[in-house]
């Protein structure tokens, strides 16, 4: 297969990518198989991501795909006597800021959390220390300045996040993290702005179609559209598909968390399990944790009291 | 308002008063199914209630057999969760469901691996299949797998049912590989049928006294850490909690009370020379230290545990070891002779039990007499066909207020209808 054919096929794979692990891995293996056409295939990724016809869900999936591809590339290259020499890794790394902005275009941050998870995982694979960025990402509220608050009150839109604002020479992963943090701030900012300036909808029933109708913009009373449809927003079908995909990927992410490995040769319960799954796992509860637990237990106590016929306590 | 009145008899549209058992006769003019029975979840029972329920489902002569089988089932489920790497809380919930199931369903010995036990001769292929499924449904191990399936879902450890089946059958040396996969298919149907029954037995109450973060073993370690109890004594408590997992104590009191009861026993027993290999360097608490912790322990203010329930737990656990010490996992971790008393370990529990004789335990004034128990709708055998018709509704005790509002609406609606009719 020549390079042109490979990239056509690859483009097709990317456009029909689904967030199931199977589909992602299949795509990654295709890319690895034709690692000699790396330049062409990376260009294909850029093309697909830039294509306005490709919907946002697919772009978010492509971000996931990059995570999987980087991971796979590492795995195959680290095997003894491997013919691979970390293909795609450098190229994809420098591509990240661009893909991130395409996945989170304008003020639409619906894929924010997915991108965050993928970026964390990519950083882990590349052994990049992202702790500082992670903390900043998760404490975004502290980064609001007085000026931001004034802008929210004045109903000013958050300034567009651009790649050009970042220092060019720095490591692309740092740029990506910085962009992501800005995006998170933007999403939080827009949320606060929305809460402040839009009325809460209460008391009236909303038709299902209207509820999902974020793309078509507001309709005036006569049914004539006020605003042009915004292609950056999701349609009802896309929202539903996305809910399903996210549910699936969330389920997958939790699949192995609970696993407990126990020694095979022992019949009963072992001290090893006590040490690793209990003694080392639980710390003394802090005040907040204790408060939550007590609230739960008090509610449980009410249920318990109702369970018996006689008053027990 | 008490939750003890079980299903609320509720007047249906056809005017017939439907109790817990009555069903709507099928007729062409039948109104769409409406809620005829409401069951408010009552997850905890006193010991008299448990005894009464078990009398209905397990004949006196088979009691020993039932407990033997239960022990086997516990071992079976434990091996199963080891293979699929589930955490212990899944085992605990499975045993909770398993024991709860037999409060409301008859216990029969037959196993699905044998061919005998069929009644009558099937006349069609479909009937024959149904018979096989029914046979599976009577098998305690199949019931256990069904409990495990539901427990794993409730504890958020998802595995495919087929994986559970394959591992379970392998543990029991059952050859489930026929050419058409029929065995697994029938077994699967039986497991799902039972699952639906268990859901009704637990009244769709997924708190079940143990929400996600409140399984006995987890809470116990957290509580021990809070009290500053050292590694070795926490481990002792944890071993006790493992032993107690296979008992019906979880049907009597909630998990946080069980945890505190176990801690109090540990602090009283003050065990020495527990076999362990880790944390050997750690300074162990002296008897005096343990006494100080015990003196300052307050069930309610520190752990939100009503004292009566904790006392019930203490007596139960002591009783368990007095009778079952030799079969317990604790026994494997303790020297045969206690260094302090120079006697076997079991004497410590006996001694404690006599000391704790006058503890205030659960009040059973309203359920000590058989007649009173007989009047309790909640304890009657449950008719599963009712739910299949969509005529029953389940709810948690604290959500009942919502239902009362609904009843009020309905009454107002009826009044309105009546006045409309009379004005015409």
Automatic annotation (TrEMBL), chain A:
Domain CID span(s) in chain numbering: 2-160
An example Gene Ontology CC term for this record: CTDK-1 complex
InterPro entries for this protein: CID_dom (IPR006569), Ctk3 (IPR042326), Ctk3_C (IPR024637), Ctk3_N (IPR024638)
GO biological process, one term: positive regulation of transcription by RNA polymerase I
Pfam families: CTK3 (PF12243), CTK3_C (PF12350)
Name of the molecule in the record: CID domain-containing protein
Source species of the chain: [Candida] railenensis
From TrEMBL, chain B:
GO molecular function, one term: cyclin-dependent protein serine/threonine kinase regulator activity
InterPro entries: Cyclin-like_sf (IPR036915), Cyclin/Ssn8 (IPR043198)
Comp. bias (Polar residues): 11-26
GO BP term, example: regulation of transcription by RNA polymerase II
Region (Disordered): 1-33
Ranges annotated as spanning the membrane: none
Name this protein carries in UniProt: Cyclin N-terminal domain-containing protein
């Amino acid at each position: 297969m020549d390079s042109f054919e490979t990239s056509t096929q690859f483009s097709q794979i990317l456009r029909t990518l689904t967030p199931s692990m199977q589909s992602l891995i299949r795509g990654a293996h295709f890319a690895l198989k034709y690692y000699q056409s790396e330049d062409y295939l990376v260009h294909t990724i850029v093309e697909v991501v830039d294509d306005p016809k490709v919907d946002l869900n697919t772009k978010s999936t492509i971000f996931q795909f990059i995570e999987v591809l980087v991971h796979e590339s590492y795995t195959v290259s680290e095997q003894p006597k491997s013919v691979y020499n970390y293909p795609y890794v450098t190229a994809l790394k420098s591509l990240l800021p661009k893909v991130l902005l395409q996945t989170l275009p304008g003020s639409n941050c619906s894929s924010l959390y997915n991108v965050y998870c993928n970026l964390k995982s990519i950083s882990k694979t590349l052994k990049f220390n992202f702790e500082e960025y992670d903390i900043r990402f998760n404490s975004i509220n502290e980064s609001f300045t007085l000026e931001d608050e004034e802008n929210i009150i004045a109903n000013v839109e958050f300034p567009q996040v651009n790649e050009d604002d970042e220092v060019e020479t720095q490591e692309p992963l740092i740029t990506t993290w910085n962009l992501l943090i800005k995006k998170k701030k933007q999403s939080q900012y827009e949320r606060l702005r929305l809460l402040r300036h839009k009325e809460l909808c209460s008391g009236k029933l909303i038709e299902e179609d209207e509820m999902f109708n974020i793309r078509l913009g507001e309709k005036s009373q006569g049914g004539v559209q006020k605003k042009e449809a915004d292609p950056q927003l999701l349609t009802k079908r896309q929202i539903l598909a996305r809910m399903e995909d996210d549910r699936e990927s969330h389920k997958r992410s939790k699949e192995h968390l609970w696993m407990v490995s126990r020694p095979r040769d022992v019949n009963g319960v072992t001290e090893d399990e006590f040490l690793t799954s209990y003694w080392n796992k639980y710390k003394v509860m802090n005040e907040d944790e204790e408060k939550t637990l007590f609230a739960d237990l008090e509610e449980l106590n009410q249920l318990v009291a109702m369970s018996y016929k006689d008053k027990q306590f | 308002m008490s939750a003890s009145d079980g299903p609320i008899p509720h007047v249906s549209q056809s005017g017939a008063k439907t109790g817990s058992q009555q069903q709507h006769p099928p007729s062409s003019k039948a109104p769409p199914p409406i809620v005829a029975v409401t069951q408010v979840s009552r997850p905890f029972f006193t010991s008299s209630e448990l005894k009464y329920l078990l009398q209905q489902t397990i004949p006196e002569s088979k009691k020993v057999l039932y407990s033997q089988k239960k022990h086997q089932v516990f071992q079976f489920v434990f091996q199963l969760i080891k293979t699929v790497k589930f955490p212990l809380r899944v085992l605990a919930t499975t045993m909770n469901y398993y024991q709860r199931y037999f409060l409301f369903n008859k216990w029969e010995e037959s196993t699905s691996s044998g061919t005998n036990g069929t009644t009558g001769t099937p006349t069609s292929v479909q009937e024959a299949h149904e018979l096989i499924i029914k046979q599976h449904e009577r098998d305690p191990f199949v019931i256990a797998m069904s409990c495990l399936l539901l427990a794993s879902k409730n504890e958020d450890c998802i595995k495919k049912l087929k994986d559970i089946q394959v591992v379970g059958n392998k543990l029991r040396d059952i050859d489930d590989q026929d050419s058409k996969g029929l065995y697994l298919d029938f077994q699967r149907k039986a497991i799902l049928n039972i699952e639906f029954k268990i859901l009704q037995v637990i009244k769709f109450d997924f708190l079940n006294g143990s929400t996600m973060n409140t399984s006995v073993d987890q809470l116990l370690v957290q509580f021990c850490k809070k009290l500053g109890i050292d590694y070795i004594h926490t481990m002792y408590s944890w071993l006790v909690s493992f032993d107690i997992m296979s008992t019906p104590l979880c049907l009597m009191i909630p998990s946080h009370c069980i945890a505190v009861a176990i801690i109090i026993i540990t602090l009283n027993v003050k065990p020495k020379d527990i076999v362990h290999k880790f944390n050997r360097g750690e300074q162990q608490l002296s008897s005096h230290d343990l006494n100080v912790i015990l003196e300052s322990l307050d069930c309610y203010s520190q752990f939100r545990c009503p004292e009566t329930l904790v006392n019930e737990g203490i007596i139960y656990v002591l009783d368990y070891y007095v009778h079952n010490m030799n079969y317990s996992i604790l026994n494997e971790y303790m020297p045969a002779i206690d260094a302090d008393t120079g006697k076997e370990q079991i004497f410590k529990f006996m001694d404690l039990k006599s000391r704790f004789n006058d503890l205030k335990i659960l009040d059973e004034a309203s359920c000590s007499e058989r007649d009173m128990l007989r009047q309790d709708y909640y304890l009657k055998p449950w008719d599963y066909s009712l739910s299949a018709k969509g005529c029953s509704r389940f709810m948690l005790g604290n959500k009942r207020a919502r239902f009362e509002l609904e009843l009020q609406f309905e009454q107002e609606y009826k009044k309105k209808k009546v006045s409309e009719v009379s004005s015409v």
